[in-house]
Amino acid sequence: MRGRKPGKFVLDAKDETSLVELLRDGRTPLRVARRAQILLGRANDQQRVVRLSDKVEQDEATIWRVCERYRYGGLQAALYDAPRSGRPRVFSPRRTPGD
Q1: In a domain, 8, yes or no
Q2: pTM higher than 0.70 for the full model?
């Protein structure tokens, strides 16, 4: 077997219910929903990283990264991106043909 050996991944019960609710909600962004699927899939002891990567259509490195973010930062860190540095986007008002 190549690569690192997967460690035991433990998901809190309250986090698991939160993830299931997020997936059932119809307004969850796709990026967040995929990360929730990854965390729920890794919580299953029988699920291997390679099979999970095929199921959620993400690279194995992405699965490792999401799981590590959960382990060290909790559920919010695993699901959502941290604010990025730099100037925020500014949208100008829509221009009309007479302008």
Answers
A1: no
A2: yes
